[in-house]
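Record type: monomer structure entry
Structure origin: computed from sequence
Chain ID: A
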Amino acid sequence: MLSTAGNLLIQGTINKTLAIYRADTGAKLWEMSIDQAPVAGAITYMIDGEQYIAINAGWGGSPVYNLNRNGPFRTATAKLLVFKLGATGVTLPPMPPPNSLPPPPPLRATESQVISGRAIYAQTCQRCHGENAVGGVRDLRFMTQQTHARFDDIVLKGIYQERGMASFADVLSPDDAAAVHAYLIARGNEDYADAAAKGQ
């Protein structure tokens, strides 16, 4: 939350809105749908005597990874939103249509590998990628063929480190990474038909 000297309280909400309240009473003064659950705090600043409120609106991280538990939770692309008093005629671009899901590869791992991968995933990956591999920063049930092919390079070699996915080579062995991959393939096969039918 952000509180201002002008008795305003600004909050991004889990309902994919930005809301402004009276700080002293909590009365809601204004709310706007922004198609995102902004977990970052808003900031305020002034230029030439005009006050602006800015918020980085992008869904991700542990505060919101459980949102998919009760059904699909779609968000628009991440964006920086800036508001000023009295602005008119400004609208957000529409949300993109749901992407078609890439089908998961066939599951060829043993049951014991999948069980082991589930336990390792829960301990190592769940905080960012969601409970039962649902939602999270990136939903790993429906990876592309290219991502499946690069899985070890991503997890153990850190080839996506600049995107925020660090190497886990100091935590996971190659066998651990293979078990997690097997678990994710299993979860993709479990959920693919229903998710594709719903256009998630």
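Annotation 1: The first strand starts at residue 2 and ends at 3.
Annotation 2: The radius of gyration is 20 Å.
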